[in-house]
Design goal:
5-stranded antiparallel β-sheet, about 25% strand, 5 strands, 1 helix, N-terminal domain of TfIIb, mainly beta, about 60 residues, binds zinc ion
Length: about 60
């Protein structure tokens, strides 16, 4: 897989500095604190607040790609 555990260790949410986890789809990173979801483009995590989406606990796989 493209994003290694080591990389995840050093990544942090730019909004709240909490750690992020790889999403089940492997294409995004989710902040454990604020639930922002950061996209991964070309195997590079885009850790920008402007690029993040907020994951709503109520919504499931509704987003369009
Ligand atoms: Zn956060």
């Amino acid at each position: 897989m493209a994003i290694s555990e080591d990389l995840l260790e050093i990544l942090a949410c730019p909004a709240c500095k909490a750690k992020v986890e790889l999403n089940a789809d492997g294409n995004s990173l989710k902040c454990v604190e604020c639930r922002r979801v950061y996209p991964i483009r070309d195997d590079i995590p885009v850790m920008l607040i402007d690029e993040a989406t907020i994951e709503d606990e109520q919504t499931e796989l509704n987003s369009s790609k």
